[in-house]
Structures are given as C-alpha cells and as structure tokens.
Description:
This protein has 128 residues and is mainly alpha-helical. 49% of the residues lie in helices and 5% in strands.
Amino acid sequence: MTDVRSWPVGLRRLAEIIGAAAAVALAEAFGGEEDWYIPKTAAVDHPFVAVIGLDRMEALSAAMGGTTIEIPRGVFRDLKKARILQATGTSREIARGVGATQRYVRLVRNSLTDDGQPGLFDPPPKDD
C-alpha cells in the first residue's frame, strides 16, 4: 500500500475514497483548481470520469456528493512514487508510463524490500 501520510489532506481524503492512483491522476489533471462540484449521482459526462472512470466517480459521489472540493496540485514528491508502486509491468514500461527513468523505477520498487535490519534513523525497539 502506498504511504500517503506526507500528502496534503485533500489528496489523502481523495485517496481514501478512490484510491491513491486515481487521486494522483486527478491531481495531475485538475490540480490547483477550486470549486469542483461533486454531483450526488455520478454522471458519465463529468470531466473526472475521463480521468478516473465511472466506478471511482460513483464512489466519490457517494462519499462527497453535493459538495464542492479543491483538487490539490500534483507536484508532490511521492505522487510519482505512488504510481510506480501501483503499476505493473517491466521497469521500462513503468518508466515510460509515468515519465521517470528506469533507474528511478528500480530504486522505488527496491525500497519496498525489507532486509530485516532497522534503518539508520529508526527509533530503537521498545521492550514490552
């Protein structure tokens, strides 16, 4: 699962409802725009549907229908990481899809491996 704790509150809220990848896609497409009305019933012609699909728009309408939201800008460091972590395929395919280098894709993917050793800045384990 993608760690969204460093994301802006509005983007975290969207990720909880529609998933991290869809939230990233909205931020990239509509980031920085205010007063987006979320209809109570999802409609195929809503601009968000082209980006996140009707099923996720239905989830967004169920959770936030009848309100307006601001879409946070998609310029945060971890947004590309989220897309890489959720993508499938070879490093080359993912790099091309997200606009990153293959080396960066490997770096992000390898950060998921746990070699059993604590990190240099991790707090010491607590004795219970």
